[in-house]
Amino acid sequence: MVLTVDQRGSRTAPDRVTDLLEALAPLPSRLAFSRTAGDEVQGLVCDPGHLPALLEVLLRDGGWRVGLGIGHVEAPLPGDVREARGPAFVHARDAVEAARHSPAGLRVVAGGTDAEQRAGCALETAVWLWASLLQRRTDRGWEVVDLLDAGDTHDRAARRLGISQSAVSQRARAAGVVESGRARELVAHLARLALTAADGARAGEDER
Fold it and tell me: Over 70: is that where the pLDDT of 208 sits?
């Protein structure tokens, strides 16, 4: 899976690529995210379980167009994503261009078989719904979410924020903590199915 990310409004806004790379750096990826050209960033992810955390950084910020390409990547892999090649990179390029007209600023592009198309569409739909939830989350909601994600209990989060446990629970409900957790699991699951479909299409080509 290739993520190609382009900064929104880059002609009038300051360059934010360095900040984004710092935010993505601690998260696992197969080939680390790098600036590829201008205000564009690209990275390679092979484990579907790693995709939700990366997407959450991008969706939370809201300042990026995101293209997710699913497909074959040529082996052996180089040490730098900028030197990697394969259909997944072409799909990611098409996806980030299509993201200009997406309500969530994100598109998923997979291969041409029916199975790949269905799997890619399902993944894209799940991410769009998740993005809608994240975009409605307030700063106060994110305060609670960040503490709970870091392992704090409601009691500890309440003491850190100087509010009651019931207030933490209210913020967590309003922030959709439970729903977001389910969304992460669903996105990882659908990404796994999309990769399986891509692998199946590749195997079919090899048999011809």
Answer: no
